[in-house]
Write a structure and sequence with these properties.
The chain is an all-alpha fold. It is built from 7 helices and no strands.
Length: about 190
């Protein structure tokens, strides 16, 4: 199997795993709202870090960093749960979660050209972030057109939760291909 297909498979399974765990968290876990939000943040931020470090996924420090970022996400959501919810608080928590994930991934890639890599990782994450909303919007249009309830079918429930995470994973995969292509062109020019 080619390296590209192995990489695509990795991104697919990370996105699918996130979707399955989110579905379990929301539909079957019985957790409180704050606990669900904290677990969802841990799943999304930990998986996001893992996708940013896909080429280093065989290194134990990557998995340790993923767990630390997930725990940090839980802590941040839990610490901010007492604040009155507003657009500013939600945006601040989201920015904190993204910054924590980006800093963790960038620092694990080494200290050379730290700011350039941080901005590059941030740019790819910002380009990938609209994809879950687009996938969710298209899925909602489809189920409304078909007059379906996604929570009455296991497969539709999985699609409801996994489509956004798979869309994000697909965008991150394309970003990784683009970065690998750019590195290949730079090495050929030298």
């Amino acid at each position: 199997m080619s390296a590209t297909l192995r990489s695509l498979r990795f991104y697919f399974f990370v996105g699918l795993g996130q979707g399955l765990l989110l579905m379990w968290t929301v539909l079957y876990s019985g957790l409180s709202g704050v606990a669900m939000a904290a677990l969802a943040a841990a799943l999304l931020m930990g998986g996001g870090l893992l996708q940013l470090l896909a080429e280093q996924r065989r290194q134990p420090r990557t998995w340790i960093a993923m767990l630390l970022v997930a725990l940090g996400a839980v802590g941040l959501v839990w610490a901010c749960s007492g604040l009155p919810f507003s657009l500013g608080v939600g945006g601040g928590v989201t920015a904190g979660l993204l910054l924590m994930t980006l800093l963790g991934a960038t620092l694990l890639q080494g200290r050379d050209h730290l700011w350039r890599r941080l901005l590059g990782n941030g740019a790819w994450v910002l380009l990938a972030l609209p994809m879950p909303w687009l996938a969710q919007w298209l899925f909602k249009l489809w189920i409304q057109h078909r007059h379906l309830d996604p929570f009455k079918s296991g497969l539709l429930s999985l699609a409801f939760f996994a489509a956004p995470t798979l869309a994000f994973s697909g965008a991150m995969f394309l970003g990784a291909l683009w970065r690998a292509r750019a590195v290949g062109h730079r090495s050929l020019e030298r």
